[in-house]
Hints:
Blueprint: H1 10-16, E1 22-27, H2 33-51, E2 56-62, H3 65-79, E3 87-91, E4 96-99, E5 103-109, E6 123-127, H4 134-144, E7 151-156, H5 163-173, E8 179-184, H6 195-205, H7 208-216, H8 232-235, E9 236-237, E10 246-252, E11 259-266, E12 272-280, H9 293-304, E13 308-311, H10 316-324, E14 329-331, H11 336-347, E15 349-350, E16 353-354, E17 356-359, H12 363-371, H13 389-398
Parallel strand pairs: 1-7, 1-8, 2-5, 2-6, 6-7, 9-17, 10-13, 12-17, 13-14
Antiparallel strand pairs: 3-4, 4-5, 10-11, 11-12, 15-16
Helix pairs in contact: 2-3, 11-13
Amino acid sequence: xxxxxxxxxPHQLRFHRESRRFAALAAGVRGGKTYAAAREFIKRVYxxxxxxxxxxxxxxxxxxxxxxxxxxxxLFDVLGGLGGTPVSEYHAGDRELWLKxxxxxxxxxxxxxxxxVAAGLDGxxxxxxxxxxxxxxxxxxxxxxxxxxxxxxFSTTPLGHNWFYRYIVQKAWTGEPDFSVHSWRTLDNxxxxxxxxxxxxxxxxxxxxxxxxxYEASFDAFVGQIYGEFxxxxxxxxxxxxxxxxxxxxxxxxxxxxxxxxCLQRDALGSWMVVEEVVARQVLIASPxxxxxxxxxxxxxxRRGAGTFYCDPSAPAYIRHFRQAGLPARxxxxxxxxxxxxxxxxxxxxxxxxxxxxxxRCRTVIEELLNxxxxxxxxxxxxxxxxxxxxxxxxxxxxxxAHRPAFW
Length: 408
């Protein structure tokens, strides 16, 4: 049997008893949401097989390639792997899985909503749904379900009051008959040993708003000051950094609008300090004169030491200019929400010690950290496009985790 050994916790069990056409679950990390959604998806596929004739066609969709890989692994775990009894064949290059009984499952990403075209679908599973683009649901996935009156399963961690909240969650909460939503906290997953200790540690290490979202599945909107934990009394320092074990530079290009280069240095305890800023308008990337971004970057490295320049990826020609000038430059990871969270976590204080401070001489950084705001009229976690030039450079320098392009 496909579900032998599956012992759902009470919240998962209530979700599996749901039969509405659009079934959503929103849970904290490690709450078992993808685990439950994969099993719900397969359950619904085989219920369709009992009552429908002919070929059945489904999609498993995710916002990125990396998230889609997790979704794929979870689905194959349900099926018993490539050699599982239900599996007929799998074409990895085409991302197509055929199950016995003339059932086709395709794996998709939603980064290019205009590419989400096909004949009608009998159903789909959208993992980390809140991170998908709004037009992926309204302009692509939703339309694929019309012809065959297909169903959808959504699994996600909340992301504020974005499209998923408006078009799925609120419809369920206001009683629309085709919609349901089930939500639970990380701690509600009783099957992982030691989870309470992990959650308690996360509560200490994360800014409160991120902890509520990631571990308590809160749909609270992100409003007001983005870096609300930035405290001038704690985060602004007059001292020079202790002996630096790493130096990084963050670069936000600009001409009509200000551009910025920040120098950050990390001490042996892992804390970062913004030690210098260069902020200017109407400056060329390279110039034979006294002023250019490349010249200022070389001067910074002469004062502060060698380090990688993590640059706004929107101008690859500028990055090439830096490299031609002998500067180790690379395109930064431009994951906006992830980068903002990385900076917020660095500013978070544990036992009175923040992971990021700013030297008092960096006046623009200080001003922008105090005035950087969420856009109250935008979708989800979107900042206002103002007071953001050094904030962008800061997240480029700090958010340097491995980044893979999303493609199938």
